[in-house]
Amino acid sequence: xxxxxxxxxxxxxxxxxxxxxxxxxxxxxxxxxxxxxxxxxxxxxxxxxxxxxxxxxxxxxxxxxxxxxxxxxxxxxxxxxxxxxxxxxxxxxxxxxxxxxxxxxxxxxxxxxxxxxxxxxxxxxxxxxxxxxxxxxxxxxxxxxxxxxxxxxxxxxxxxxxxxxxxxxxxxxxxxxxxxxxxxxxxxxxxxxxxxxxxxxxxxxxxxxxxxxxxxxxxxxxxxxxxxxxxxxxxxxxxxxxxxxxxxxxxxxxxxxxxxxxxxxxxxxxxxxxxxxxxxxxxxxxxxxxxxxxxxxxxxxxxxxxxxxxxxxxxxxxxxxxxxxxxxxxxxxxxxxxxxxxxxxxxxxxxxxxxxxxxxxxxxxxxxxxxxxxxxxxxxxxxxxxxxxxxxxxxxxxxxxxxxxxxxxxxxxxxxxxxxxxxxxxxxxxxxxxxxxxxxxxxxxxxxxxxxxxxxxxxxxxxxxxxxxxxxxxxxxxxxxxxxxxxxxxxxxxxxxxxxxxxxxxxxxxxxxxxxxxxxxxxxxxxxxxxxxxxxxxxxxxxxxxxxxxxxxxxxxxxxxxxxxxxxxxxxxxxxxxxxxxxxxxxxxxxxxxxxxxxxxxxxxxxxxxxxxxxxxxxxxxxxxxxxxxxxxxxxxxxxxxxxxxxxxxxxxxxxxxxxxxxxxxxxxxxxxxxxxxxxxxxxxxxxxxxxxxxxxxxxxxxxxxxxxxxxxxxxxxxxxxxxxxxxxxxxxxxxxxxxxxxxxxxxx
Length: 749
Known about the structure:
Elements: E1 9-17, E2 21-28, E3 33-40, H1 42-48, H2 51-61, E4 73-77, E5 80-86, E6 91-92, H3 93-100, H4 105-124, E7 137-140, E8 143-146, H5 151-166, H6 178-181, H7 189-205, H8 215-224, H9 230-233, H10 239-248, H11 260-267, E9 292-295, E10 299-300, H12 308-322, E11 329-330, H13 333-337, H14 346-353, E12 357-366, E13 369-378, E14 384-393, H15 397-411, H16 432-445, H17 450-466, H18 471-486, H19 492-509, H20 514-528, H21 531-544, H22 549-561, H23 567-580, H24 585-597, H25 601-614, H26 619-632, H27 635-648, H28 653-665, H29 669-683, H30 690-699, H31 703-715, H32 737-745
Parallel strand pairs: 9-11, 9-12, 10-12
Antiparallel strand pairs: 1-2, 2-3, 3-5, 4-5, 6-7, 7-8, 12-13, 13-14
């Protein structure tokens, strides 16, 4: 390498090294100046390749700011990738902290403000650092300079999916934001500001906000724990700085400072001596469409907190009405509901959901009386574009929803398709008690846990009794019965036959109901094993409602399970579902599962960890994580995730069976046997799917008994068999000729 660069640099000795690069002192022969020549480690270079890395790193060369160490040069020499920066005679902030441990408060604040200023400028140029830490901050003549700007982005863009294999991560665990630790594909500037908050905390406290014996433990702290108050670590730190740090280290990006300038300005009142500050351009962000809206969950102002289902239902109905307007971009339900119960600044909400307006409101329900308030706000300036209060009887609930939707369409000048006199909200039933029960059923169904399915079923059944021609109630019953059968909460022949009957009845009443087509397609998919019929119904659901996330996910799984196994199409559909509702945990977790089956393990785990970050107690997300680790043969990690799944799900039979398989594959036969005994005991008092029991027999070495159980599972149309072809739990069966025969019987071969 030195020979290849001899005409441009005289390369001296090594002056430092890190996880990604070795640093040499060199002389730039053309400009007669000392430079730091950084050479990527060979194993990293081999994984990344040069073209993409060099193209992406050019972004760093365009950054010109007094607190950013510039990039002079980059290239490839004899198979080595390198980049060149000025050689600064000062010391890194890490060196300073090693020597002094804690910095004077004023100096710590000055360094933080200068780094925040540099970040503000870089973010306005759409460059995120991704690795802010003391090692990457130089202190030169009393001022901070950020170095290696753009390197993290270049590494991520050039080959983030390979970094785990090389032992290198983009970012440092002690300073990673929760979203970076969880593997978000796209980070924005708020991730850097979180890392800077960690650096400020360390400068003041003399220790990092989260510590632990392993990198995994530290990352878990960032995702799940609150940092100790800085005042508890150093009593002389002003309370105002404690508040600034709490905001900077918020788990949710929307709760943090939006820009580096905001961070720096928040520190200004606590600075006891003048600090030079260089202004920077406000961070550039994607501009939302002029005609775009998020409907935040209407607050339940009723005396009875259980009326929350009603306020949620009103919100969802308004969202559904607004999605009928073709010129209006409407944020997805789950993404909008991620702000439920949070007192967020509406500008932050708009930035997070990428919308220009927000509708918020409240619902008070007392007996048959309703008071609904609603206000439409421009998120850029906080100006109220429209507001109204409705004091009506329950009989007027659909009219109120229509008036709100129509007022928004008028205020945003959105085109209404069809006759202008046609309402946007059409009453699905004349029976308000039935409608009330339906809303409550959907509320329970969204919770996706065992008891909630039964609660949803009871609500939908009551709605159907109150109005036998209420199509949505029948569709709700179809969904509830379908999921109850799928999760093995009842024998499938009982639950799935009812799901089919309710879906068909809903379609008799309203053939345009996307929910009913999707429910019928689900029955065809997981119970009938009729791929063409399932595909037809789910396609129809998506034609009727292209933004139907659940239908999009079932469509993706259909591609995975069909005989031809079109994994590329499955992944594409999974990403479409994710992008329809990007702030929701469920689509991220299911996308991760789809990516796992398709063999894209690293990206899968990134998405699943992001789902857990959004919803830390989601047993489905932990289940997906455990399965992803099992597919990779990372059994210790799989067991940890599946133990958590079992805990969160109340030891659901799937979680126990998959944990059994992971233990057995790991060689822990005693633990696997204990779990199988648990399933056998439970099968004496409750329904346990024979497909799950067969997994236990197979992993414990009794293949003949396992196949007998599979035969029984086939006879009862066990829903676990739908994944027989791809699921890791069925691995012991696959070399036996009887396995191919069973695949043929299941229309999977």
